[in-house]
Amino acid sequence: MSWKGMVLAAILAALAFVGWEYRNLGAERDVAKAEAAQARSNEAASQRARAVEHKAAASDAAASAQYQKELENGKKDLDGAVARLRTALRLRDQQLAAARGGDLPATAGAAGGRDGEAGAEFSGAQRAKLVEALERFGIDQYAIGNDADNTARRLSASQALIQSDRQQ
Asked: Among 56, 58, 74, 57, which residue's Cα sits nearest to residue 153?
């Protein structure tokens, strides 16, 4: 092999090496482009997920606030109903006592829509026994209706959350 052949072989080897490196650089560039595109796609998906989570959190907060408001209104309604009931019972008892004592005519109860004695209603002793029985079983005499109202409010709040989740 002559020196020309050796130089030619060296040039060919150098060109092969440069070509190989150029191919490696191209492959690395393609990998970097793919990774950058994937990172942009991941960032966009992350931003969409954050937006959906933010919307769901706002919807849940609104449903919770509505539930709390209804719960407070329900407590006020219950307190008002209890006060009205106690006042009505007190007035009825006073009216019955006055009618029996002779201060009022016996037909004074007719204005309320009944004649004579209140045989179908609980007397003071019967009412006391009923209250005692309810307390013995751990039932608040005014809470039975309140429990139903609270259950209805919880159901409404749950339905609002489910509807907001389905809209997303």
From this structure: 74
Largest CA distance in the chain: 147
- Listed in sequence order, the residues at least 6 apart from 93 whose beta carbon sits closer than 8 Å to its beta carbon are 124
* Residues 65, 128: Cα–Cα separation, whole Å: 39
Distance (Å) of CA 5 to CA 15, 18, 86: 15, 20, 119
Amino acid at 112: G
Among the listed residues 101, 60, 86, 68, the one whose alpha carbon sits nearest the alpha carbon of residue 142: 86
How many domains are contained in the chain? 1
Structure tokens at 74: 């329900």
- Give tens-digit pLDDT for 113-162: 444 454 456 677 777 777 777 777 776 666 666 777 778 888 888 888 78
pTM: 0.40
Angle, vertex CA 54, rays to CA 70 and CA 66, nearest 5: 5
The one-letter amino acid code at 98 reads A
Cα torsion 64, 66, 72, 73 to 10°: value is -160
Q: What are phi and psi of 113, to 5 degrees?
A: 100, 15
Note down the domain range covering 162. Answer: 3-167
Cα–Cα separations (whole angstroms), residue 57 to 34, 44, 159, 164:
34, 20, 15, 10
